[in-house]
Design brief:
- The complex is a heterodimer of chains A (110) and B (113).
- Chain A is an all-beta fold and 110 residues long.
- Helix content of chain A is 0%, strand content 55%.
- Chain B has 113 residues and is an all-beta fold.
- In chain B, strands 2, 4, 5, 6, 9, 10 and 11 form a seven-stranded mixed beta sheet that branches. In chain B, strands 1-3-8-7 form a four-stranded antiparallel beta sheet, with no helix packed on it.
- In chain B, 38% of the residues are buried.
- The chains are: A mainly beta (110), B mainly beta (113).
- Chains A and B meet through β4, β5, β9 and β10 of A and β5 and β10 of B.
């Protein structure tokens, strides 16, 4: 079945450093979505990418969708303590369920 | 508008018992999905409902079941509880399916003792 792999599992950075998490699917995806879950909270939708090679930015966050629509990345520039949490990618094929990666947990020290 | 509401927030059950969890989606949302979240396993897909029909089902045993009502509210039931069923159960609703992103509820924390 469809699998979504995410690396790294954990990442610790100093405040101000950059951070990147990578997502890979075993199958071609219709779209990729990214979510953030703060400690003790629930996942919150960040963005969706649909087109091959698409790049979207939200302030310090840059999201990319691979040309083959099988991989994606989230890059945070100059991390802040408010960026702490677990970042999940999730993808689906047309008509299938949205499958989540296991997430990358980001910790930031000031 | 009100978010996704899940009840109860916390639940403690004994092995062998059954449990029913409830989810009220955002008004107007017809798609409801359920996920089980455990440490190290991330979010594992349970079911997806759309207009009272189960559209997709994950790889969980038959002890896990769900349904959706005409008002889009959804319930999931777990029978013959096992210790391994202890988890955070998350419900998410979407206005037009996964393409527009999911809004998650705060979840039900189930502990099986």
């Amino acid at each position: 079945g469809q699998q979504v792999m995410q690396i790294p599992q954990y990442q610790h950075v100093q405040e101000g450093e950059d951070f990147t998490t990578y997502c890979n699917s075993s199958t071609t995806l219709s779209n990729i979505q990214w979510y953030k879950q703060r400690p003790g909270g629930h996942p919150v939708f960040l963005i969706q990418l649909v087109k091959s090679g698409e790049v979207k930015k939200q302030k310090r966050l840059t999201f990319q969708f691979g040309e083959a629509k099988k991989n994606s990345s989230l890059h945070i520039t100059a991390t802040q303590t408010t960026d702490v949490g677990t970042y999940f990618c999730a993808g689906d094929q047309a008509g299938t369920a949205l499958i989540f990666g296991k997430g990358t947990t980001l910790s930031v020290s000031s | 508008k009100a978010g996704v509401t899940q009840t109860p927030r916390y639940l403690i059950k004994t092995r062998g018992q059954q449990v029913t969890l409830s989810c009220s989606p955002i008004s107007g949302h017809r798609s409801v999905s359920w996920y089980q979240q455990t440490p190290g396993q991330g979010l594992q897909f349970l079911f997806e409902y759309f207009s009272e029909t189960q559209r997709n089902k994950g790889n969980f045993p038959g002890r896990f079941s769900g349904r959706q009502f005409s008002n889009s509210r959804s319930e999931m039931n777990v029978s013959t509880l096992e210790l391994g069923d202890s988890a955070l159960y998350l419900c998410a609703s979407s206005g037009q399916g996964p393409l527009y992103g999911y809004t998650f509820g705060s979840g039900t924390r189930l502990t099986v003792v």
